[in-house]
User: What shape does this take?
Amino acid sequence: MFDLVVRGGIVVSASGQARADLAVSDGVVKAVAAPGDGIAGRQEVDASNKLLLPGLVDAHVHIPGYFQSRRLEDFRSATTAAAVGGVTTIMLMPTDDPRTATVQYFERKRRIGEQQSFVDFAIQALVGPRTEEADVAEMVAAGAVSFELFLAYGGNPGFIVGHDDFELQRLLRLVAEVGGTAGITPHSPSLIGRLTALQRDLEAAQRDAGATNAASVAAFAATRPTLSEGLGIARACTVARESGTRIHLRALSSQASIDLVRRFRDCVPLSSEVMSHHLLFTEEEAAGFGPYGIIVPPIRARSERDSLRAALRAAEIDMVVSDHSPVLREDKEAGWADIWRTPPGMPGLQTLCASMLALVDEGALSLPDVARACAERPAISFGLHPRKGALQAGSDADFIILDPAQPTLIEDSAQFSKAGYTTLKGRTIKSRIEAVYLRGNLVAEQGRIVGSPGGRFVRP
Ligand SMILES: [Zn+2]
Assistant: This one.
């Protein structure tokens, strides 16, 4: 007798989909059995005519107020959004203050997450010019899932690698020595800096000439061109080839970046990600969002969006992430008068699964693509597979029950992030997330959280 049997659903995996009964005990999948195999559970859930997806694994999440702020997003609000949206494992980027650059801050973040998180979480460490060998050794021992390097931006300048190739090589060697993965946020600081200065000079001249138009999303985007991204990727890959470091490239946004990744894949052990926003939106739509359309890298032309979709389908890009950046509405609103005062970023945890389902509705992706790109590949790339990212015997019983016959209208009022809005507002997807389970426990049902925080720290 198992603890739980979920009967008659169609189980979706990266390799396909098939009707099966899922047996769970002690929070772990014990069997994925053919219907009629006679398994029984103390609790039974009827999933006839429903789809079972592995719980999503989001490898790029920011929780900016996790420690010091009551105003900004915290673990409770972010992970409520995650659970309701079908994301059962999150990986926390290290840019939330205090930055995860030492083992003391790492442990503090872990403790807060263990008290407040509704979903399981892994922690990514920050490395930069101040990092010493001991920091990397201590954080790998503490369970860091990656070591993040920021080549151009990422907030605090003390942690930016910038154009310093000596530092880039030193840090990638340190990560290689502990057998870790280096997360690379690429881009060229000098290109961004000079283009931004030119853009602002141009705006000043226009204002002097009597123009009153506020700067646009397009003006911001022009200061972060695809060339900036490509230069960072090429530099990081060139050094990683030398140091033998496994790298993960953050937020690809263009065909040029896809081409570079393809060329370096032979000689560098690498993985890559795309944000859901870049798969969903075009630059025209981003322009319509005003300050809410400002993210880095910027949302690009339709042709780039279509290239990213094709590369994802072909598994040339490994995974989709939300880059959940829950900038508050009051902070975004400042951008209507002056776009340069807009903190970049969009919330995305609660809508990651919905974004993928919207692409499935459009025929741009299949459900197995979603299982691969949002569960299996991120878990594999960061050393959490097959415990996470799969529905097979031995995996944690993290799954979504999806009703393909019930449409969902996406609305701001249903969002649990403190950001309180979504750029998917007004879209209808054809299916509905009915229930979400974490290690065999129901954590969300019909858009509501169930129970109290039970998320655990997970490590490679
Ligand atoms: Zn980010």
Remarks:
- Residues 55-387 form a domain with the TIM Barrel fold (CATH 3.20.20.140).
- The radius of gyration is 22 Å.
- The CA atoms of residues 394 and 400 lie 17 Å apart.
